[in-house]
Amino acid sequence: MASDRSGVRQAGLRLRVLGPVTAWVEDRQVNSGPPLQRAALCVLAARAGRVVPKERLIGDLWGGAAPKTAEQSVYTYIAGLRRVLEPDRGRRGPFTLLTQSARGYSLARDACRTDAEDFERRLAEARRYQAKEDLPVWLRELEAALALWAGPALGGLPGPFCEAERARLEGLRLTAREDHADALLRLCRPQEALGTLTGLIVEDPLRERARELLMLALYRCGRQAEALEVFHDARLLLTERLGVDPGESLRRTHELILRADPSLGAAPFPTAVVSSGEDRGRVSFRATRRSSWGGRRCWCACARCSPPGTEAPLRRWWRSPARRERGSPHSRCGPPTR
To answer: Greater confidence, 14 or 291?
Structure first.
């Protein structure tokens, strides 16, 4: 099947839920009704191909606060959805897209596609390329997945189902944005990661991985003091809100930055990462061609991304027994921080 510019595949019904909920039937946008009717469509689309009992649909829409008219409202919503989903059905013809049985309601699996499915498919592809250490393609798949979003998931629709699904999808999105920043760091592009990571911390100040990545990005941009300040802010926030200390990984990164450890792959002063897009492409290509992240095989890419004059210290570090014993979890072109 062909895809539109958003990446949502064409089908009998296409539903966008990564933003304001919008429905298309055979490439024609349709009015899917009031908020609870659109919420009912999202419930059915999430369980396409399976029968959703009327009682469960009521629970998904209202939870334990269902009104006395809930059953009649469900009938009304289903009738409204059928009118917009199959407008060309004959007066006595059978419904084929949204069907009803004694057990409940069902949306045809093969005729329904959502952008949430495409988002999760892209994430799965991204993980596959990450495992293969193909960093440029990993980054590209993450960017394609994130480009599908047009606003908060499920457009603020009410009901227990929409609230739970919104939280799940937003969690996947935040993790994908962290992975995107991680990929940029590993491709020696720390300045590009700064905006994403700063925004992530504003949205969710308790995300330790985002803070750790931001510390690494700042350090690799020659902003060591700001990187350390991010840690102190995190420690204060966690102590005040939760009464806990930062996690082990965040503490370890703080210690490495504090002593400007060579394993971080950058010196604590401003640097120009690469001079041109052509150079960056060569760095990325070399980094992804290595069979392993350890030892001398990765040094050429890391040195290429380091400031002038640091090649010799890097060379000594990569050859040192201490590096071989400890490894280099925070190498600029090395594995992710977690």
So the answer is: 14
